[in-house]
């Protein structure tokens, strides 16, 4: 397989934008990424779009050519990928595979979701569709409920505490406050995080990511052509997508996501690195417990040690391995279809040394972990300096 | 040409009830199908649109004594991980359990 690089990136702000529709968000991110890469729409050979539920949220189908056409990209394959909250991670994995295999050279990968046009209870219902609607969905499980049950079991098996989960929220809000594109730029205290409105026991509002609108895009190309377009290419060292059962009650052990573990192993192997080498990461903190479990599944710590690891501050901006310097899904926001590519933009930005106040010092090797549903899809990407 | 019958994937409880009617008559076997241990649980305060009127309600994944896990609702007393529960009835496709 040919080596592939990210040659351009573009993001919209994440937030609640009553005056913006889905297409305008996706187009803004796409045009920014092409501008950043110094390519024109006529140079794009394929468009891979991640979107979870545009048809349910805004009533629009056939989204990939709908968005591409508005950017003057026509006569090329334009396809939407759906893998719940890992939709754009999946689009990226397939795009990199195609460029790596030599099918195309210059490809645009986007992700978008427009969620705030629906009331919260309706959003919960649409999101629940990423689970097993015949079983857990029919019983009344929201995604918060599924992750609450995961948290309960993790607390039971490993002694993980509410305080450790709250530490994730406090850290990610502190980082989000420094990110000009974040949905919630508000620092919160441990006290606040511990006493939020109950959503699904033991999770409170401060354990849950945000309902957001937003889009993100990257342009990728073979590494050996990257210098034609940019002097800041970011190399895609490893990328893997894996799967698992959709229904939570069909998984043997719900305190770990085996799809994530496997994707990480494959991505590390492809990159020729180990978990220890990863200097910083953007992980899928759809709920605070998910960030704790990610620390374990990515191999940063042993099983059951994720809680103490985050509470000790090791993943803070000035810690040994900064995690979610963007603010994560918790504070940056979680427009689900945009999240995977959004994370890649954030990691690439750190590697390019353009993260401003949030810039980490050790920035040559970063990781992005994107999770779909309660772990039925996982995408792990290792990025590094070209 | 072979005719392919359309099949619907039933939930485990539906299968169990069907099995119960057709095969198992003995009480000990029925007990193994109807009882279990709470593997995990949550109380839902923020419900999806369809279930807002029910909130707050308790959900649990139950490890059935006869094998397998099921996601269902808990009626009556709240339960914790490790509590024994008994299957009560099946409403709108959802198994309801009670603390044993």
Secondary structure layout:
The complex is a heterodimer of chains A (386) and B (100).
Chain A: E1 4-11, H1 22-37, E2 46-50, H2 54-58, H3 63-70, E3 78-81, H4 87-100, E4 107-114, H5 120-128, H6 133-137, H7 143-158, H8 162-176, H9 190-194, E5 198-200, E6 203-204, E7 213-222, H10 223-226, E8 234-243, H11 258-271, E9 280-282, H12 288-297, H13 306-311, H14 328-331, H15 336-351, E10 365-372, E11 377-385
Parallel strand pairs in A: 2-3, 2-4, 9-10
Antiparallel strand pairs in A: 1-7, 1-8, 4-7, 5-6, 8-11, 10-11
Chain B: H1 12-22, H2 27-34, E1 35-44, E2 57-64, E3 69-75, E4 84-91, E5 94-99
Parallel strand pairs in B: 3-5
Antiparallel strand pairs in B: 1-2, 1-4, 2-3, 4-5
- Cα gyration radius of chain A (Å): 19 Å
Oligomer: heterodimer
Spatial gap, N to C terminus of chain B: 52 Å
Residue share in β-strands of chain A:
15-25%
Order of helices and strands of chain B: HHEEEEE
Main sheet record of chain A: 9 strands, mixed
Uncertain spans of chain B: none
Strand % of chain B is: 35-45%
Number of H/I helices of chain B: 2
Individual helix count of chain A: 15
Shape of chain B: globular
């Amino acid at each position: 397989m040919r080596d592939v690089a990210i040659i351009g990136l573009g993001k919209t702000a994440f937030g609640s934008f009553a005056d913006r529709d889905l297409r305008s968000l996706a187009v803004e991110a796409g045009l920014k990424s092409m501008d950043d890469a110094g390519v024109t729409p006529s140079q794009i050979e394929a468009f891979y779009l991640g979107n979870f539920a545009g048809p349910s949220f805004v009533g629009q189908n056939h989204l990939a050519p709908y968005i591409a056409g508005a950017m003057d990209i026509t006569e090329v394959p334009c396809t939407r990928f759906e893998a719940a909250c890992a939709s754009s991670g999946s689009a990226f994995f397939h795009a990199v595979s195609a460029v790596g295999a030599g099918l195309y050279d210059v490809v645009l990968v986007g992700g978008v979701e427009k969620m705030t046009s629906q009331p919260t209870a309706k959003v919960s219902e649409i999101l629940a569709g990423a689970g097993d609607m015949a079983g857990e969905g029919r019983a009344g499980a929201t995604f918060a409920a599924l992750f609450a049950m995961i948290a309960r079991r993790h607390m039971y098996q490993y002694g993980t505490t509410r305080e450790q989960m709250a530490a994730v929220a406090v850290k990610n809000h502190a980082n989000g406050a420094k990110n000009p594109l974040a949905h919630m730029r508000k620092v919160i205290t441990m006290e606040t995080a511990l006493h939020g409105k109950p959503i699904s026991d033991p999770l409170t509002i401060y354990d849950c990511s945000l309902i957001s609108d937003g889009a993100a895009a990257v342009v990728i190309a073979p590494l050996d052509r990257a210098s034609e377009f940019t002097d800041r290419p970011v190399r895609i060292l490893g990328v893997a997508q894996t799967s698992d059962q959709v229904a939570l009650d069909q998984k043997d052990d719900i305190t770990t996501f085996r799809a994530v573990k496997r994707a990480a192993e494959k991505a590390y192997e492809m990159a020729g690195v180990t978990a220890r080498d990863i200097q910083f990461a953007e992980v899928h903190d759809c709920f605070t417990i998910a960030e704790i479990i990610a620390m374990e599944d990515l191999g940063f710590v042993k099983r059951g040690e994720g809680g103490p690891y985050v509470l000790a501050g090791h993943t803070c901006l000035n810690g040994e391995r900064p995690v979610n310097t963007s603010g994560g899904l918790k504070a940056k926001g979680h427009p689900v279809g945009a999240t995977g590519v959004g994370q890649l933009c954030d990691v690439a930005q750190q590697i390019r040394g353009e993260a401003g106040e949030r810039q980490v010092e050790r920035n040559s090797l970063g990781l992005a972990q994107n999770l779909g549903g309660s772990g039925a899809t996982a995408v792990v990407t290792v990025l590094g300096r070209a | 040409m072979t005719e392919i019958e359309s099949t619907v994937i039933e939930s485990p409880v539906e299968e169990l009830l069907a099995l119960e009617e057709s095969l198992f008559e003995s009480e000990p076997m029925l007990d193994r199908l109807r009882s279990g241990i709470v593997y995990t649980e949550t109380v839902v305060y923020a419900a999806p649109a369809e279930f807002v009127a029910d909130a707050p309600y308790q959900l649990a994944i139950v490890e059935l004594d006869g094998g397998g896990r099921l996601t269902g609702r808990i009626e009556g007393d709240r339960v914790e991980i490790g509590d024994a529960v008994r299957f009560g009835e099946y409403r709108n496709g959802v198994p309801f359990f009670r603390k044993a």
